[in-house]
Amino acid sequence: MGSFLAILRHEERMLRGSAAGRWVAGLLGVLTVYGLFAGVAMAERHRRMQERLLERQEETIAAHLEVLRQSAPGGTREEVEAAVAEARRAATREAPAQPLFGASSPNAKGQVAVLPPAPLAPLAVGQTDLLPSLAGASEINRHRTAEDRYGYENPQRLAAGQLDLALVVIYLLPLLVLALAHDLLAAEKEGGTLALVLSNPVTLRNLLVGKVLPRALLLTGLPVGLTAAGLALTGVLTAPGVLAGLALWALLVAAWVLFWLAAAVAVNALGWGSAANATALVALYLALVVALPSFLHVLAASRHPVPPRMEAVLASRQDPPDFSEDTPRLAREWYARNPDLRTPERNETTIREGFATGFFLAQAEMDRRAEPAEARIEEALARQQRLAARLALLSPAVLVRETVNDLAGTGVVRHQRFRTQADRFRHEWRRFFGARIFQGDVLTPADYQAMPRFTYQEEPQAAVYRRVLAGLAGLALWGLAALTVARWALRRYSVSG
Amino acid sequence: MVAPIARREILDILRDRRFHLTAVLLLSLLAAALAAGWSGFRQMRAEQEAAQRLTREQWENLPARNPHGAAHYGIFALRPAAPLSLLDPGLDPFLGRAIYQEAHFQNPARYRAAEDATALARMADLSAAGILRLLVPLAILLLAHAVFAGERERGTLRQVLSLGVRHRDLVLGKALGVAAALGAFLVPAVLLGLLVFRLSPAGQEVSVPGLALIAVGYLAYHLGFLGLALAVSAVARTASSALAILLGFWACNGFLVPVLASDLAERLHPIPTAVEFAEGVHHDLEHGLDGHRPDSPFMKELEARLLAQYRVATREELPVNFWGVVWLESEKVSDAVMDRHYAALWERYRRQERIERAAAVAAPSIALRSWSMGLAGTGLPAYRDFLTRAEEYRRQFNRRLNENLRDNSRGTESYMADPSFWKTLPELVLHPPGTRESVAGQAWSLGVLLLWAVLAPAAALFAASRFLRV
Description:
Chain A is built from 18 helices and two strands. By secondary structure, chain A is mostly helical.
């Protein structure tokens, strides 16, 4: 034990003193802070944009309520109807808002559903630079409603990716591990000191562990420590589930580093020179981190190809309904789909025909026609995602990517969940306003209170943790495989030859 | 002396089993990447053409209706698939596939392929262009890093130099050896691939000069890497340190600098968020002519002008359709507003690109990407070309519809255009940009690549004369 501790202390001192050690530590430190900052900035950008939109929405509603308060202080239906009629006669704009353009303001047509950044979003930008975090609900068909939720990010930036913490961990950390570990044994062997060291009462295994441990501690401890400190500074650590998530992330980084260290030991144990080791390890890196994900993607995409979005868009536009002629039929179908909104006094026979009703029904019909194609697209995407998650077991880099995205809440899974909830919200919104528009209602303060609002429902932590733990287990398997190869190779390792 | 040195180098390399493995791997990967690229191109072309036909059919089959209503129904412009995307898909997954062309709004191109894909898809960047940009240089580095440093370590360099071999001949010979070894399998593979491609119908759309120009870019890039590897090999004391330096450069050039440059560009010239852009546009539109708002001062002013022009007292008495005129005027206003905002957006993109161009001096892979995407028609210039032509069409489309309304009814009569009118609007036919347009604007990237191809080998010659001493 004493000799092992001596090796450990010696190796730690060597690492600290070496140029390579200092360079790697410096680079890793800088990149970690940079990456974390990029993640924080991205989450902040989304949050600010969402807050601004929601603020304006509330301002618009408040303005509408103010008009109501002034023109119909009692807030009853009769008062509001009288105020609307009066405003129409006087041809002014200060009329109480009508249900067709309900709580819509000029900028935000309708209500907006937002996907707030998860507390650990700084860990990975994930897909949040590409997938919109807003979804609109309004009287207009879905494909037009989304127009101002669409981002204008530079496509070159989307293609290049961002230097976030996930990129540092997945792509750069292995290269830094290889820089410090490609010559674990080869350097001493080439320098002629290996035989000398091992002539002391120290096993090759202990020597290796003594070399690997300080590297593992540096390459794991530094990014984890800096990230934890950074998140503490931004005040995120106190949010529920964050500490546990961060702990899982730390385990992930440790498992990833240990995998590459084990691979480096395995390659070293083959007895080649340090240049050959470096070459072999870079080749392994390219195979696992660059080539294999491409191959797996081709597999997943060809097994579950996603139909083009244009199919759904064009389906919605086929044989567009006529505002006036098709109104009675569309109204019947609408009430048949929403029987709970039908009462003896308010149903398809009592609708107020006109532009508002016709327009609303036509837009709803357009969305309804796109539904089968939309469902096919979402189903194919979900299947491709599930297959990709299973295939991830074949590539440790993909495992890390999927797991980090899950922890950060910036992956496809959370976004798909958001889209499903946004769809349901859109549906509720349509029901709320449809029922009022068709019957020629006016909006009273009570209606503004009752209007559907959207709050994203997070997935239960347990489900997320299950996936994360599965990812960790997969990565651990890879580490175990690398260690097994290392042990087999070490048994045949010749110290002097 | 060049020939025997080159011959020796080639033989040494060709005898190495690891070289055979590398060659087989590179060729298999290239073949797989090209096959995947080809399949992706054919699929996109089929999808876009089908959507193009359907949107036109839907338009032509519209029943009789008010032309302005038809303008709101609109039509789609589909981005054409570029044949050379099989080689370099470039930005394609992140570029919108279709633009909804309607009245009043210049919509962005939407439905990016990457939005309907998994995170795995974003990790999968191994196109033929990626292989040629990242893996072939790596092979060059691995083959050439020990050319001088290894000989120095083994002591054989001293022997060679003592024979009186000129440094220049040594460098040229070694360079030729490495280039010939790699070229022996890469060049036939690439030529075969190009031939097969040219024989296909899609391949006929691409000009031979275009293909040649792309090849020139990649050749210059690889030549530069060869020069760099030899230069570092000449200077470094050991093969290991040469390899470490070169791998460091390769990682920075291929991964780190491009992503840092993109980050810096965004920080210095940030792109507005979706909400900011929409707010800006809306604010300007609010203060212009909005035909849907009857009480706006612009509307009142336009009405007064029209009544005076036609010498009538009310809009109902006008000999042209009042709303037709309103929509025509309001399109001019909204067009001007959208022009302003999109011009500002593209100006930001352009400023971001300037920063990336500066970074290309340190990382020639940036220049190569730009050159390759530019000529393949999968970069931003081709995208902008698509957006511009689609917008020209949309404006003409709206103008024809509004003129039809203006000229075929009077006052505020309700009017529905006959369905035969829809067919008279020409179809938008788009093609990927040709070679000349693709090359224009890419001079800077070719310049950087040629500079790299000249300076790096020059550095090798210089390093050899300074550092290769007996």
